[in-house]
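Hey, sorry to bother you again with one of my protein questions. A protein chain has come my way and I'm curious about its shape. I'm sending you its amino acid sequence along with the backbone structure tokens. I owe you a coffee for this, so here goes:
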Amino acid sequence: MLPLVRVDRLWRTGLAGSIPSALSFLCAGVFLFAAARRVFDAAAASAATGLFAVNPNLLYLQSTAMGEAVFYACMMALLYCTIRFRETQGWALAAGAGAACALGSLTRYEAWFLIPFAAAYFVITAHRRRAAVAALFAVVAVLGPAYWMVHNWWLTGDALDFYRGPYSAKAIQGSAPYPGHGDWRLAWLYFRTAVQLSAGPGLLWAGLAGIAATLLKRVFWPVLLLSLPGAFYIWSMHSAATPIFVPGLWPNSYYNTRYGLAALPLLALAAGGLVALVPQRARILTAVLVLVAGNIHWALHRNAENWITWKESQVNSEGRRQWIREAAEFLGPRYQPGSGILTSFGDVTAIYREAGIPLRETFTGDNGVIWQATVTRPDLFLRQQWAVVMGGDAAQSAINRAGRFGIRYRLEKTIVAPKSPVIEIYRRI
């Protein structure tokens, strides 16, 4: 993504994030087909890949800069490498599986959860030097989590800042209760509902039947591996700070609905496995029937209003899209390059993308020591002519502190949008 965001047009249109996601989606489909073909046959693999690829919720996510498609590419690569390793015992496949886990762990935390299970798989399936093979996989796989902790330590001084820092899921959720926290039954109910809304009822039932059929054929590892992300989310709902809100269950809103897609690869692969149950001559027809059964719901509900991941983004971004647009329309024509903007990083960043202002013009807490020096002694270091703040954020505090040193910023614009924090734009006087 980094080379692409340097192209201003790609950054401003969002394509800089969409292109890597779409390519990852393609890689996920290729690896899923290759793995399913090894486990079953080409007809079953085609059905599994088709069910995975045409899901409208995943199609929406892979068109954005979200991490799901990248994670699926890594998980499908892990699945393929582990299946091939059992056949060939190639050490390169163990290293490849480790690389897939390492890359996946830089995308989503459920990839961390996969590492010990995959290591155990190599211990069980290796014919010789089991410990060495598993160690090779593990050493490569943990490079991802190790890098992420070093990265957090370098930036914040706390290797676990991603877990307990001010921007962590734990800090964002705080002590607010939510359904499923400390309650396995509710955690399962909310996750199961998110799965049904994300995958569709046809694929859900076909996948459940396929899981039973696949286990009867003694195909255990693919089912176990692809079940782990779902187990991770149920565990996170129960024991961490990871709520899922879905319409139809209290509080009847949308939040983290995309987590239901964690079961999509499992359901798609298992439903494809149904094709392998019939005689060879009937498998192509059966694959078509499985595809139809799995997607009939989406064929009958083609409006994007029925795609829960899209609907969540639409509902939860109404206010944000309003204040981004208003702030960009105000700031864009008035800002002179080199003036500098004191601001925060996060949702506010979209203002500068929309206004065509490069991020190098902004000054945030991510500037580290320089930021700390500036907010501590603004009389010596504060040079920015503009400030864009979100009520109560670090930039707002910096502006207030600067006032005590005789540095004045005049409020130029206040933006109030529904269900959103107040956005204020200041100019130095």
Q: What stands out?
A: DSSP finds 23 helices and five strands in the chain. The first strand starts at residue 341 and ends at 342. The chain has a mean pLDDT of 96.
